[in-house]
Design a protein that fits this description.
2 copies of one chain form a homodimer. Chain A is α+β, with helices and mostly antiparallel strands and about 240 residues long. Helix content of chain A is about 30%, strand content about 35%. Chain A contains 8 helices and 9 strands. In chain A, strand 1 (about 55-60) and strand 2 form a beta hairpin. In chain A, helix 2 (about 30-35) crosses helix 3 (about 40-55). The two termini of chain A are about 35 Å apart. Chains A and B meet through strand 6, strand 7 and strand 9 of A and strand 6 and strand 9 of B. Strand 9 of chain A pairs antiparallel with strand 6 (about 170-185) of chain B. The structure holds a DNA duplex (30 and 30 nucleotides).
Chain lengths: ~240, ~240
DNA sequence: TAGCATAACTTGTATATACAAGTTATGCAA
DNA sequence: TTGCATAACTTGTATATACAAGTTATGCTA
């Protein structure tokens, strides 16, 4: 059985997305929702909390839950969205080209960031991302071989996250991400359509599994004019 | 009386920060904490949820709550951190210089983004941020005059958020943020120490109050080599 | 000893109840 | 009509209980 609060979340999220409930309006009260879904108020509140965290609604004590504008709504919560998802929201033609996939022995920098044994087998995956025909993003992924033994070029060309979660049953838990601007290297210029750009936006991210082990390290280089990062931050404290 | 779960959160967060509880170790179980704080399990769970959201711990069903590494812990949750906070975590000399503060009548673009009446009074605040003596960040803030009537240059030179929250009692609720790279304008080059850089990282953010009204719009231009954005994303769904 | 079922933990979900705190509409009184 | 107390909403916090689901250690059995 699917979790109840998740089901309520999905249903309400869809109603907001399809504008069945319009922005600016109030959601039905917690008590009404409790009755409608034949559940307890706490369960409804968990669903509403999720909606709030993901930018669908804004809760106001004493008033109710206001539905927020959705047109500019950023992706779930930045940081774990794949290129595929990203392109779905923009309306562009997207291609992914695997330029290399090899299994190497970890050493030096990679061994250090992945926190694995010296010489442990590690997938090194290079992917070139094209947006409307132009090569504008270059990804280098490093992931532990023992955790994704069946990786192939075909799989890698699709969404890696989908493969990890659906096929391997690994559940990705959280990611740390850093965004900086760096000088384009000679090899970057050879691979990507950089035009006269001399700098690249570099996104480095570490993906952790549920057991807190570091699983994947990615360096993603973006042509500056095609880079866009959207973030939705909520005040917690 | 302070909220109980918040108090528990503060206490545990401090213990993690001061490494009284070390990274990699498990937190006491929910039942133990319930007893220790003489409260109910749900209250403890709310505190733990906050700790998890802010990257202090990682909850694992059946095992417990693992304390995460804190050294690389990014700022609270990106998006609402002020320049002052940012500089505190890095160890650099920081200066803020208010280059202009004026109250203008809203029109055109600004009237549109702030969603206010044509001609409504709006503060326009320009600030130059220096890092170790170099002018590397230029902020333009626009905020509704009626919500911050007593703004002065002195206040603006400090942290605006502190002023809004502590002095005016306004509670900031959430912010949308966009990060892109754009060509440096002639006036940018005149104001900032750009060297040979031709592009700037531009962060545009909208700050909302609890009643979901847009309150402040900020455009922050960063010299690319001094820009760094850190994000901590947690899988929600 | 080795293997395995099980007991004893852990966190996750769902329910019910009570009252606090904030907002809004009602309706009485001046 | 105006003003104000109040009632009737809303969401927020705190508590108690029950069972599900996942992990780990115990200890029995072969």
């Amino acid at each position: 059985m699917e979790k109840k609060f998740q089901a309520i979340y999905d249903l309400l999220a869809k109603e907001i997305q399809t504008e069945k409930i319009k922005a600016g309006k109030l959601l039905p009260s917690e008590n009404e929702l409790t009755e409608r879904f034949a559940t307890s108020r706490e369960t409804v509140r968990k669903a509403l909390q999720l909606l709030s965290q993901n930018g669908y609604i804004q809760k106001l004590q004493g008033k109710g839950s206001v539905v927020l504008e959705q047109d500019k709504l950023p992706l779930p919560v930045s940081g774990l969205t794949s290129f595929k998802e990203l392109s779905r929201s923009m309306s562009h033609k997207v291609e992914t080209c695997v330029t290399s996939l090899s299994c190497k022995k970890a050493h030096g920098f990679i061994q250090q960031v992945l926190q694995c044994e010296e010489g442990a087998p590690v997938w090194e995956l290079h992917r070139l991302r094209k947006l409307d025909g132009e090569a504008v993003i270059y990804d280098k992924d490093f992931l532990l071989e023992e955790l994704a033994p069946g990786l192939t070029e075909e799989i890698a060309g699709d969404s890696i996250y989908d493969y990890l979660e659906q096929e391997l049953g690994l559940s990705i838990s959280y990611a740390k991400k850093e965004v900086v601007v760096e000088e384009a290297q000679v090899e970057d210029k050879a691979i990507m359509d950089l035009g006269s750009y001399q700098q690249l936006v570099v996104v480095r991210s570490a993906v952790y599994l549920e057991d807190t082990t570091l699983f994947q390290y990615t360096e993603s280089k973006h042509r500056p004019d095609k880079f866009r990062f959207v973030d939705f931050a909520r005040r917690t404290k």
